[in-house]
Amino acid sequence: MNIHEYQAKELFDRFQVPSPKGKVAGSPEEAAAAAKEFEGAKLVIKAQVHAGGRGKGHFKNGFQGGVHLIESPEQASEYAGKMLNETLVTVQTGDAGRLVRKVMIAEAVDITHEYYLAILMDRDTCAPVIVASTEGGMSIEDVAHDTPEKIFRQVVHPLLGLQAYEIRKISAELGLSGDIAKQFGKTLKNLYKLFIDCDCSMLEINPLVTTPDGRVLALDAKFGFDDNALYRHPDIVAMRDKEEEDPREVAASEYDLNYIGLDGNIACLVNGAGLAMATMDIIKHYGGEPANFLDVGGGASKEQVTAAFKIILGDPNVKGILINIFGGIMDCNVIAEGVVAAAKETGLPIPLVVRLEGNNVEAGKATLAASGINIVTADDMADGAQKIVKAVG
Amino acid sequence: MAILIDENTKILVQGITGSFGGRHAQLSLDYGTKLVAGVTPGKGGQKFSDTVPIFDTVSQAVNETGATASAIFVPPPFAADAILEAMDAGVELIVCITEGIPVMDMMKVKQALKGSKSRLVGPNCPGIVTPGLGEKSHGGCRIGIAPGYIHKRGNVGVVSRSGTLTYEAVFQLTQMGYGQSTCVGIGGDPINGTNHLDVLKMFNDDDETEAIIMIGEIGGNAEAEAARWAKDNCKKPIAGFIAGATAPPGRRMGHAGAIVGGEEDTAEAKKKILAECGIAVAETPSTMATTLMEAWGK
């Protein structure tokens, strides 16, 4: 789950992590009011979408750039009018772009130095790890590749939590001293509390900056939350913006289906995450391109299978479907009935290959055969993948 | 002699009165597993399936029945507590089936397990099967949710992060006439109790296991770590498969742990490391068993 920049700022404010002053606006009037509130400071207006590259993007109405310096409340209102309810295209959005429904008016800060600071859940040590670097403002992957010695890692004990000496160590590695070091220490402490309290999987600040007037500020942040823990964070769930997500994935999540859209043309419907990944792989192995990852789970109902089928058919790129079920405990006939119900409801305009194996497989195969629907059956995964790749051509 | 469990292992089920736990407890009983107790707080004194006593606490169940292994089916918010309770009761083998436990909870559990005498397998795993000698492997020990009937008692050890891919491998082996010593699902979460390496070491020391199938996926470096150890230490042929070659980076593919973070945890990188360490890598999931047979000289 992703959140917007203005929502990240809300979390920072709540946990006392200093960031530039800012306010979200949903209309030109609100934008002007926010700019008036911060009068005297240098300000920027930023389109709020879940995609990077906003500054260099363009709007479909011809307006250039999703981030602008603004001089006055009037200009804030004018620019907000050109951004709100318009579609912004950036390198990360694809040609379709994203509809901008909120803008943020924020203080444009002068920068003395840019640092990198992140907290991640590290699977090797099974503990949070803090990653810090003096080389902020650029891709950390590049820093890791070119100058790995400039990246400092500190593993935090899962039960003891962040210790004062650890903060001092990191601060020293970054070459901070005096009041700046003190501010940094407080910021890191609060950031760690945010990471733990909100069940984050990742919290990346790039850059964390120092300013000529002696402040330490989190300028840009990226959050990752542990999906498994969202049940205990209704406030974070409320930040979810479904408009920013793939509509196919939103539809799938309503039926508790694990779906991830891809760019290929062969859809697959599988039980089990490992088998679903392996099914995508085998489609590719035989020369096809998978259109999605879809795991219907170990206990899928007829309704879930029907919903899954409809989501697949709703993708205009899909030219064929491979169903791969190893129903160890799951009743193959439940899958078969779901497929038949869905195919009858939606019609079946494209080739369908089904590989069924496991519990009650004979009944499942009989249901498919008796349905009168044009279904190609496969003996095993390889056979199924080859047949669907051939059918799609 | 198989690993971790055999036909004499006495197991208890935590969360036996839930629909999921109950269903699979019944399937284990039907398989011939020595399921001796259930635990559901507040339902102590009742019976499961008219025969299996239910207790309020794991300690009571262990003291009364001598169970040494536990299968956990309790919902995610209470699963960490269930693991810790089993540990406190001295259960030697704790198998957590539950999917969806918060990572922060597992981080603490992992710390608590250090220095205890309990081994955790999972969470988010299909469990463990040591097949029996009866028809359709009846009479074996089945902890978890795997289909017992597809197994056959034999000499191949199977270890995997994925349930359905394990079944796929087992089914291929059984169809070719090769049975399994023990099949271990270690689970798809980023923090788990037992990893590929732990299980490889056990298979290596087990007389009954003659060959091994190791199934992995994108994310983390558990497969690479196991392969590097196997290169110098494992005396038995291994076939490997890594799922997720077509998974887009940064997306969680169903399993919480199945996410490509960097260059090292892609399927391609892992396959390369496996091959360099002398593991026969199956090109597709359809050829896991045949790849093993080639490496094994069968």
List keywords for this structure.
heterodimer; A: about 400 residues; 6-stranded antiparallel β-sheet; globular; B: 7-stranded mixed β-sheet; 7-stranded mixed β-sheet
Oligomeric state of the chains? heterodimer
Annotation field: number of helices of chain B: 9
Structural class of chain A: alpha+beta
Dominant shape of chain A: globular
Largest interface: A-B, 52 and 61 residues
What does this protein look like?
The complex is a heterodimer of chains A (393) and B (298). Chain A has 393 residues and is of the alpha+beta class. Chain A has 13 helices and 19 strands. In chain A, the strands form five sheets. In chain A, strands 8, 9, 10, 11, 12 and 13 form a six-stranded antiparallel β-sheet that branches. Chain A has a four-stranded antiparallel β-sheet with strand order 1-7-2-4, sandwiched between helices. Chain A has a four-stranded parallel β-sheet with strand order 15-17-18-19, sandwiched between helices. Chain B has 298 residues and is α/β, with parallel strands linked by helices. In chain B, 33% of the residues lie in helices and 22% in strands. Chain B contains nine helices and 14 strands. Chain B has a seven-stranded mixed β-sheet, sandwiched between helices. In chain B, helix 4 links the parallel strand 6 and strand 7. In chain B, helix 3 packs parallel to helix 4 and helix 6 packs parallel to helix 7. Chain B is globular. Chain B starts with 9 loop residues before the first strand and ends with a helix. The model of chain B has no long low-confidence stretch (mean pLDDT 95). At the A-B interface, helix 9 and helix 13 of A face helix 1, helix 4 and helix 5 of B.
Layout: helices, strands, pairs:
The complex is a heterodimer of chains A (393) and B (298).
Chain A: H1 5-14, E1 22-25, H2 28-37, E2 43-47, E3 58-59, E4 67-70, H3 73-83, E5 87-89, E6 98-99, E7 103-107, E8 113-122, E9 127-133, H4 140-146, E10 151-155, H5 164-173, H6 178-197, E11 200-210, E12 216-218, E13 221-225, H7 234-237, H8 247-254, E14 258-261, E15 266-270, H9 273-285, E16 292-295, H10 302-313, E17 320-327, H11 332-346, E18 352-358, H12 361-370, E19 376-377, H13 381-392
Helix pairs in contact in A: 2-3, 5-6, 10-11, 11-12
Chain B: E1 10-14, H1 19-31, E2 34-39, E3 47-48, E4 52-55, H2 58-65, E5 69-72, H3 76-88, E6 93-96, H4 103-113, E7 119-121, E8 127-130, E9 141-144, E10 153-160, H5 163-175, E11 180-185, H6 196-205, E12 211-217, H7 222-233, E13 238-243, H8 267-276, E14 280-281, H9 288-296
Parallel strand pairs in B: 1-2, 1-5, 2-4, 5-6, 6-7, 10-11, 10-12, 12-13, 13-14
Antiparallel strand pairs in B: 3-4, 8-9, 8-11
Helix pairs in contact in B: 3-4, 6-7, 7-8
